[in-house]
Prior knowledge:
mainly alpha
Amino acid sequence: EPVDDMRPDNPPVCPEVLDELTHYFLDSDFDVKNLYQTLVSTNAYQLSSRSEEVESARRACFAQMNIKSFTAEQLYDCIATATRMGSSQPAPNGQEGIARLANTSRSAFLEQFRAPPGQPTDYHAGIPQALTLMNGGLVNNASNASTSGLLNSLPPFFSDKQRVETLFLATLSRKPTDAERSAMLDCLNAADGKKKKFETLGDILWALLNSAEFTLNH
Length: 218
């Protein structure tokens, strides 16, 4: 840490792997896409953080995935993607970065999560950041019944069960457990009227966006 710190006093954990990847990258004529495909196909990349207790020495050798916070940029983009924020028209080819820089909502969010001076790659979670997620405009707009792209994209013929499953798949990339599904359906059944039920769906989405499972890379 950080990933681009190549000083002699910060040696790689597995220099043999780094050398192998270096030669592989050269032999592929600097094919970045192919390199990414290779990395994400490895067992080390696909390890889960859910495992038995692992000794710290083995953890450094990719025995399991280490849980870590998203960077502010990653967190914003995850929220935006999961909740279908922004225009339905994609940015012109090659101009995605320019579109991000022009996004004032994104800039304001990143300002709240600014890293300390001298630590540009670190993200320090704390009370201000937690309050930004819970009460800030980004998550509130993303989960509000009248402004949420995800909620407004739900087909009217969906059952409550299908709506709940869609929210889980969009945010956590999995279906709810039986206990989670039961709890969510109980909340929806307690809602009086169509408008109140839609607001309850917004509350469920808000809870998912603020969950550790969504905000941590695991």
